[in-house]
Amino acid sequence: MQDHLLTDKLYLHVKIKKSEDLLSEYTYDDDNINPDLSEYLIEKAEHALPLPAKENFVINIHTEDNNLRLSDITRRIHRHFHDEYDVAKRKLRYNTRLTLALSVLGLVAMLLYFFSELYIGNFFVIKIFEVATWVFVWGAVEIFIIDRHDIRHECSLLRRLAYAKVVITNDMNINTPTYI
C-alpha cells in the first residue's frame, strides 16, 4: 500500500495536444522546451513534495500526436532542467560567498567598534561601528539561514526534474488539465 502511494507521488502527468506545444517559440535553439511547460512541471513537482531524497520524478506525457519521439522529448526536458539547475547552483554559491563576505565585514566592524570604544571614545564613531556590526552580521545570518533554504529547495526540485524519467502515453483520458 505504501509503495503504491509513493509511486503515485512520483508521476507528473502532462497533456500535450501537438508536438509544437513542447517547443519554445522564443528561441532559435531546437532543444529548449516551452516555458509554460517548464513552469507547469515545476509547479506540479512542488506540490508532490516531500519525497525521499534519492527519488526522482517520472514525467508522463499524455498525447495523441504520433510525431513525438521519446528520445527528443527526454533530451529537451533533461537539458532544460539541467540548465535551470546550473543557474540555481550558481545562486547557491553566490549566496555562500555573500554570507562569508558579510560575516568578514561584520567581524571587521566589530573589531573597529571594540577599538573605537577603548581608544577613541567618540560617541558618534562608536554608534556608527555598532550599527555597522549589527547590519553586517544580521545580513549574513539572514542570507545564510533564510534565503539559503529556499535556494536549496529549488536546487533539489530542479535536480529531480533534470534526472526525471520521461514516458509517453498515447491517450488523452487522464483527468489532469493541459498545461497551456
List its salient traits.
180 residues, disordered N terminus, 4 helices, mainly alpha, 3-stranded parallel β-sheet, rod-shaped
Strands side by side in the biggest sheet: 1-2-3
What order do the SSEs take from the amino end to the carboxyl end, as H and E? HEHEHHE
Nearest-angstrom radius of gyration?
Answer: 24 Å
Number of strands: 3
Note down, in words, how this protein is organized.
This protein has 180 residues and is mainly alpha-helical. The protein has helices at 2-10, 35-48, 70-120, 123-162; strands at residues 11-15, 58-62, 165-169. Helix 2 (35-48) links the parallel strand 1 (11-15) and strand 2 (58-62). Helix 3 runs antiparallel to helix 4. It is rod-shaped and about 80 Å long. The relative contact order is 0.20.
